[in-house]
Amino acid sequence: MGRDDRRAPSRPRSRSRSRSRGGDGSRSGSPAEDGKKRRPDDYGVDTMKITDDDAAFILGKGGKTKDKVARVSGAELELFERDLVLEVRGSKAQRRRAKKYAEGVMAQRTGPVTVGKDHDDGDLTLLYVPQETVGFVTGRAGNFLRTIEEEWTTLMFFCDVGSRRDKDFEKLAIYGDVRGRRGAELKVLSAVETKSPGYFDKIQDEVMSRDKGEDESGTWGTDKMVF
Fold first, then answer.
1. Which residues pair with residue 175 across a beta bridge?
2. 111 FRET partner, CA 20 to 30 A, in 42, 160, 170, 187?
3. 202-217 b/e with 16+ CB inside 10 Å = b?
4. pLDDT digits over 194-203, tens only?
5. pLDDT digit string, tens, across residues 112-165
6. Are 208 and 224 in contact (CB under 8 A)?
7. Residue 129, class by beta-carbon neighbours within 10 Å (0-12 exposed, 13-18 middle, 19+ buried)?
8. Neighbours of 60 (CB within 10 A)
9. Strand 155-161 relative to strand 113-115: parallel, antiparallel, unpaired?
10. In this structure, what are the phi and psi dihedrals at residue 83, rounded to the nearest 5 degrees?
């Protein structure tokens, strides 16, 4: 994980805001900052020291990647480009998720992302995607996955699980809340079914029972209709 330090009193930091600022030069914070909500009791601030290349990657075109990490995690993110520091604000759980997602995004720049058991905070679905359908699911320049992320407020990337690799399947990590993960998962499986008919039938029991009751009400589930 990235280094996370509580902010200590010090001389004011030279604040070089992210490139995704408004046209009038005003501050452009992450979407989680826009609404004035009551701060949780464990609200705090963590920082991650990053490289210049990482800064460009975590920011994304027009600040979209940074904003996506903020939306999915529920945290507030601020990128100080001059100091190469990513500041994360929110509850302890929100900060942990935001740092985990940011590290996953940055890891894609240099190679496969490794996802271990400690990466699941109740926010992760791992979906096995047949190797022959991976290109179709990803889309040109990743556009299909990005579209699903936007629709379901999720973060998605292909990864290695531990040290194992499978020549027949690629593992797709889907991060987000239970509803968003299920919607994204079904959208991906619909695309897979186009290229590999019958795949859903093989795994539907696992998919349908996954995350059952894993919401605040304890009634979460998935039904199906045959037509």
1. 124, 155
2. 187
3. eeeeebeebbeeeeee
4. 999 999 999 9
5. 788 877 788 889 999 999 999 999 999 998 899 999 999 999 999 998 865 556
6. yes
7. buried
8. 18
9. parallel
10. -90, -10
E strand intervals along the chain: 44-49, 76-80, 85-90, 113-115, 124-130, 155-161, 169-175
95-118: average pLDDT: 88
What beta strand segments (E) does 61-139 contain? 76-80, 85-90, 113-115, 124-130
Length of the chain: 227
Residues 16 and 79: their CA atoms lie apart, in Å, by 8
Beta bridge partners of 159: 113, 171
DSSP state of 131: G
Nearest to 69 by CA among 180, 140, 175: 175
